[in-house]
Structure formats: C-alpha cells, structure tokens
C-alpha cells in the first residue's frame, strides 16, 4: 500500500465526502465535455473565487468501500484506486446526527444502478426518498439531463435523515442538506427565490462550498498527485 493511502486512512472517517477534479486527456471528448459543463455551471453559481473545479463526488466508508456513481454503474471502490487523484476531503459538521449504518444502507441501495446520461439515478432517488420529496427545478439547478455523481451522495445522506426521522417518530422529514442560504453570499433576489437545493440538482461544488449554505461540510484535507497540500486556502485556485 502506498504512503498516500496510509495517510488518507489516518485522515478519512466514515461519511466523509471525497471530491476529485478530472483532468481528461485532450482526445477524451466524452470525458472532457461533461467536466467542462460541470465546472462552468459551478463557477456561474458560486463565482470564480469559490471551489468550482471539482467534477466528481464520492462517499467514504472504509478503505475497501467508497461509494461512487460512475460509468457504467454505481460501485463501492477501494481507496487505492483514487488515492493519487487531485482530491479534497469534506466532513459533515454535525456528526452527532449521522447514523453511519443507515447512510451506508442508502448508498448500497444505489450500488449497481446503471449510469444513464439522461436519467441518472432517477429510479434510485424515487425509491429512496419518495417522489413527494423532489421539488421542481429552480434557477439554482443544473438540469434534469445533467445529473451527476454528487446526486448519489446527496441521496444517501437524505435517505439516512429520512429513516432516522421515521425511526424516532418525528414525522415527515425535512431535507437535511443545503436548506438555506448564507445571507451574505447571495443577492436579495436569490435569497427571495430560494426554496432549497433539489436532490437532483446537487453538484460537487455544493459540498465544496457549503459555507454558502449552512456550513454543512468542512474542508479536512487536500491531495494532488499523492502529495498532501495545505488546505487552509479557500480560493478558486485550489484546483491548480
């Protein structure tokens, strides 16, 4: 096992979100175009000084199990398969609310789901959360035909919250993540129109810029090409 994997094992905890930045080769158009589209959307939404370059989101449980929605289907993958990536680790800031078993159950419900460009995770999300928990897409959304890997991670977290509320008898659950905006980071019009980030609209940058919402996730670590970097810098230059 490489030194980077060993270091990541020391840092990572179950439930951590791992974002990576794709670096397609010039000829990999099938990969380059989606990455460009995701980054363009995220930069437009959060601004050029935000963390807008992340293109993939995964959910860590153990060195042998990291949940990843990718082509051709959602899988659990090993840490060593991505430890040399350009990656950042984000940790949920309200760990007292996390039921890791239920969070993993939510991810396992999606594992095996085929990656369909036009209908990515539709069925899995409906089965996990119920149709009534999905809103019509708003100006904050990426679009129904551009659902990305981060939707699966968001769905697993929401599944955990829904199940926890039902088990505790607290009644119908309210979406746990990205439910309101930081008033200092958005325009008055955006604040007035905001109704929460739909599950289907969740992009990698939502986890990376949660200070724009309710500080749901904190930046824990950054690695590039297997080297641990200073992660205190919050600028848009993180991607390098």
Q: Layout of SSEs?
A:
Elements: H1 3-11, E1 17-20, H2 29-46, E2 56-62, E3 65-68, E4 75-77, E5 87-92, H3 100-110, H4 122-129, H5 150-168, H6 188-193, H7 204-208, E6 217-224, E7 227-229
Antiparallel strand pairs: 1-2, 1-5, 2-3, 3-4, 5-6, 6-7
Strand order of the largest sheet: 4-3-2-1-5-6-7
State the CATH topology. endopeptidase fold (from Nostoc punctiforme)
How far is the first residue's CA from the last residue's CA? 26 Å
Strand percentage: 5-15%
Global structural class: alpha+beta
Q: Can you count the beta strands? A: 7
The CATH homologous superfamily corresponds to endopeptidase domain like (from Nostoc punctiforme)
Describe this structure in words.
The chain has 240 residues and is an alpha+beta fold. The chain has one domain (3-227): endopeptidase domain like (from Nostoc punctiforme) (endopeptidase fold (from Nostoc punctiforme)), CATH 3.90.1720. Helices cover 32% and strands 15% of the residues. The protein has 7 helices and 7 strands. The chain has helices spanning 3-11, 29-46, 100-110, 122-129, 150-168, 188-193, 204-208, and strands at residues 17-20, 56-62, 65-68, 75-77, 87-92, 217-224, 227-229. A hairpin with a 6-residue loop joins strand 3 and strand 4. Helix 3 crosses helix 5 (150-168). The longest helix is centred in the middle third of the chain and has 19 residues, at 150-168. Residues 117-129, 131-147 and 233-240 have low confidence and may be disordered.
């Amino acid at each position: 096992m490489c030194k980077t994997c060993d270091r990541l094992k020391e840092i990572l905890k179950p439930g951590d979100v791992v974002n990576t930045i794709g670096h397609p080769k010039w000829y990999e158009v099938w990969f380059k175009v989606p990455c460009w589209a995701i980054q363009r959307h995220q930069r437009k939404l959060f601004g050029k000084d935000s963390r807008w370059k992340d293109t993939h989101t995964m959910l860590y449980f153990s060195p042998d199990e990291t949940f990843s929605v990718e082509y051709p289907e959602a899988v659990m993958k090993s840490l060593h398969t991505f430890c040399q990536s350009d990656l950042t680790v984000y940790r949920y800031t309200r760990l007292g609310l996390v039921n890791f078993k239920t969070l993993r159950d939510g991810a396992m419900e999606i594992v095996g789901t085929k990656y369909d460009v036009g209908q990515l995770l539709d069925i899995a999300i409906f089965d996990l959360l119920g149709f009534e928990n999905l809103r019509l897409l708003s100006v904050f959304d990426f679009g129904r035909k551009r659902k990305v890997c981060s939707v699966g991670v968001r769905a697993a977290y929401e599944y955990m919250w829904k199940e926890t509320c039902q088990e505790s008898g607290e009644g119908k659950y309210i979406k746990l993540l990205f439910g309101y905006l930081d008033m200092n980071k958005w325009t008055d019009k955006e604040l007035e129109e905001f109704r929460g980030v739909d599950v289907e609209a969740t992009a990698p940058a939502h986890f990376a810029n949660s200070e724009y919402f309710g500080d749901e996730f904190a930046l824990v670590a950054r690695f590039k090409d297997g080297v641990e970097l200073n992660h205190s810098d919050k600028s848009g230059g993180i991607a390098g």
